[in-house]
């Protein structure tokens, strides 16, 4: 009775219905080189409605199912595309989520990328490091800005908490959607300045 009442008060959105019916997401990997020569591996296309719906539901609700779908997508692409490039040892490689601002954390209550990384299979979860990187200030929402304003918006907005944890390591930096690449490029630059060798990965490309 209570569940019926909830469904009447809060009916499922089309995105939620799509995600609820999914068992897996199909990888469609592509590597893009940004203007600063950073290579970004993207796992799928954002205009794939199933991928878009899953990311939307993850960012809005942080559901376990949406996080698991994206974690399996990320797992498959990482092992397929980077298996020859990386030494899979926790002493050599770290998987690091793009941190969100304190304002966004208060509003949302979670970092969507951390949700995904927490749902990775154990074989990759041991590489995840959440305590090495942070946002130093709140920034505007990027999607409403021009590329030039996006670059200014994210400039100097990240910091490495403990450079000793990343110096000399291969860091796989993970974000959700690659649009202009301004955020992930700034984050990668900060890690590289601390001595890391960075490979950027986004769940989807716009």
Class in CATH? Alpha Beta
CATH overall fold name: Rossmann fold
Q: What is the typical, i.e. mean, pLDDT?
A: 87
Structural class computed from helices and strand pairing: alpha/beta
Known CATH architecture: 3-Layer(aba) Sandwich
Structurally, the number of domains stands at: 1
How far from one another are the termini? 41 Å
* SS strand fraction: 15-25%
Helical coverage, percent range = 40-55%
Element order: H for helix, E for strand: HHEEHHEHHHEHEEHE
Large-scale geometry? globular
Low-confidence stretches: 1-10
Read across the widest sheet, the strand sequence of neighbours is 1-2-7-6-3
Question: Main beta sheet, described?
Answer: 5 strands, mixed
Q: Strand tally, please?
A: 7
Spatial extent as radius of gyration: 17 Å
Number of helices: 9
Produce a short descriptive summary:
By secondary structure, the chain is α/β, with parallel strands linked by helices. Helices cover 41% and strands 18% of the residues.
Write the layout of secondary structure elements.
Blueprint: H1 2-9, H2 14-20, E1 30-33, E2 39-42, H3 49-61, H4 64-81, E3 93-97, H5 102-108, H6 112-118, H7 122-125, E4 133-135, H8 147-154, E5 158-160, E6 170-178, H9 182-193, E7 197-205
Parallel strand pairs: 2-7, 3-6, 6-7
Antiparallel strand pairs: 1-2, 4-5
Helix pairs in contact: 2-3, 3-4, 4-6
């Amino acid at each position: 009775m209570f569940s019926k009442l909830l469904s009447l008060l809060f009916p499922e959105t089309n995105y939620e219905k799509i995600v609820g019916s999914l068992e897996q997401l199909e990888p469609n990997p592509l590597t893009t080189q940004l203007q600063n020569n950073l290579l970004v591996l993207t796992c799928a296309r954002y205009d794939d409605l199933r991928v878009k719906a899953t990311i939307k539901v993850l960012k809005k609700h942080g559901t376990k199912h949406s996080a698991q779908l994206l974690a399996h997508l990320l797992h498959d692409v990482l092992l397929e595309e980077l298996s020859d490039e990386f030494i899979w040892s926790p002493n050599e490689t770290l998987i690091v989520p793009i941190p969100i601002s304190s304002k966004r954390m208060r509003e949302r209550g979670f970092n969507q990328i951390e949700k995904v990384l927490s749902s990775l299979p154990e074989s990759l979860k041991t590489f995840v490091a959440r305590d090495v990187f942070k946002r130093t200030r709140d920034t505007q929402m990027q999607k409403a800005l021009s590329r030039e304003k996006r670059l200014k918006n994210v400039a100097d907005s990240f910091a490495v908490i403990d450079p000793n944890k990343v110096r000399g390591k291969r860091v796989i930096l993970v974000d959700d959607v690659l649009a202009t690449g301004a955020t992930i490029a700034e984050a990668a630059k900060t890690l590289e300045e601390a001595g890391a060798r960075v490979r950027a990965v986004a769940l989807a490309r716009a």
